[in-house]
């Protein structure tokens, strides 16, 4: 787990966030409120949406009726919200999957895999205490593989 965690507040400016992520060479960070509680996670993927072209929802005309695919409309609304967003709260992913300080490396790896995320904020009683990334899991696997076998 990394304990020196770059973190952002919901009201932070998106431009400043981009610069800090690039400066630190990371692609995402937790978003915490004034009580140090994790309220979201922001990634470079969320920020890149601002630079993409919006895809208008798919509309089908059938026998004179116009139908809009519901999933296409939600995707459009999400992209529009992110494109117009100027603060972290506008573009972050709310309610991220988190880990506990007591979780094993196996539990963290399982959460990363099952939820298809690349990082887990580690949350204790007082709020954010660290972050576990896929690289942290790989680092631990390598360290375990290189450790000498216990004497029998």
Please tell me about this protein's structure.
A hairpin with a 5-residue loop joins strand 1 and strand 2 (38-43). With 152 residues, this protein is an alpha+beta fold. It has a 3-stranded antiparallel sheet. Strands 3-4 form a two-stranded antiparallel ribbon. It has 6 helices and 7 strands. The chain has a domain at 97-152: CBS-domain, CATH 3.10.580.10. The chain is globular. The longest helix has 15 residues, at 70-84. Helix content is 38%, strand content 22%.
Task: Put the structure in a nutshell.
38% of the residues lie in helices and 22% in strands. It is of the alpha+beta class.
Helix residue percentage: 25-40%
Q: Over all CA atoms, what is the radius of gyration?
A: 20 Å
Helix run count: 6
Number of extended strands:
7
Following the backbone from N to C, one meets helices and strands in this order, namely HEEHEEHHEHEEH
Oligomer: single chain
In terms of structural class, how would the helical and strand content be classed? alpha+beta
Judging from the principal axes of the Cα atoms, what is the shape?
Answer: globular
Beta-strand residue fraction = 15-25%
Q: How far is the N terminus from the C terminus?
A: 30 Å
Might you state the CATH topology name of the domain at 97-152? CBS-domain
- Mean pLDDT across all amino acids: 82
Sheet with the most strands, sense and barrel status: 3 strands, antiparallel
Task: Give the name of the CATH architecture of the domain at 97-152.
Answer: Roll
**Briefly, what CATH class of the domain at 97-152?**
Alpha Beta
Placed side by side, the strands forming the largest sheet appear as 1-2-5
Write the CATH homologous superfamily of the domain at 97-152.
CBS-domain
| pLDDT < 50 runs, ≥5 residues | 51-57
